[in-house]
Amino acid sequence: MALEARGLVAGPEGKTILRGVDIKVPPGSIVALMGPNGSGKTTLAYTLMGHPRYRVESGEVLLDGEPVTGLPPHERARRGLMLGFQNPVEVPGVRFINFIAAAYNRRFGVDERLIGMPRPELLKQARELAERLGLRPDMLQREVNVGFSGGERKRAEMLQLLLLRPRYVVLDEPDSGLDVDGVRVIAGAIRELVEQGAGVLVITHYARILQFVEPSHVVVLVNGRVVDEGGPELARRIEQEGYRAYTGNGQER
Ligand SMILES: Nc1ncnc2c1ncn2[C@@H]1O[C@H](COP(=O)(O)OP(=O)(O)OP(=O)(O)O)[C@@H](O)[C@H]1O
User: Fold this and answer.
1) Per the domain annotation, does 205 fall within a domain?
2) Same domain for 99 and 69
3) Cα of 191 to ligand 1 centre, how many Å?
4) Where in this chain does the record put each ABC transporter domain (predicted)?
């Protein structure tokens, strides 16, 4: 059982960015993917999720042993794989609560005619989660991410994920743009996802969030290749020494 990439060679719009990536995220665990800017972390996130602009040249993505390489994102989501975006986008004209309800009802198989309607139980859960994540309850009635601050967008992403109970989650820089209290809140939400049984791949170029959620495994990606793997001490070493040992020049790449 795991979310897995095997020998993944892939990239956006015909470019080869990932050059044979192997990674494994077991359920109920946190794997940290670290690497300097431009090393291919977001490319891996989008390729795992099946973003239509990213093409797999060879290798495969597996969910609990089943290849999903050719499947579109919504089909992967239906099977429990979800993504938290680095920069969550605005969805004007759609209220956050209806957006959540549509995703929730689709995931848990509610009558298609009711798809965007939040049932009272869901509304109650969403309000409780909003409060815990430090979002004002009135934000549920606002348009998705429209006028949300960077930190509010990240909290809103975690709210959706906690409701949707993914089996596997890829979180692309979940702490970017957050103040220190925000990092703690997001870290608490990640721990909760793991307690729900999810396998979480946390993408980050520095180890700040990993002070609050200890990964069971750390993978280092440089220039589209896995160049090192280890326990949480590897993240601490990178925090102190940077990526010089892998890039050779102290530069980002
Ligand atoms: N659409 C595209 N066309 C061409 N090159 C691209 C495209 N998208 C990404 N790249 C390149 O692919 C490489 C990897 O980008 P990616 O966003 O995956 O890196 P990253 O590790 O997530 O970086 P960061 O830490 O800065 O977010 C970069 O050199 C980037 O410029």
Assistant:
1) yes
2) no
3) 28
4) 3-248
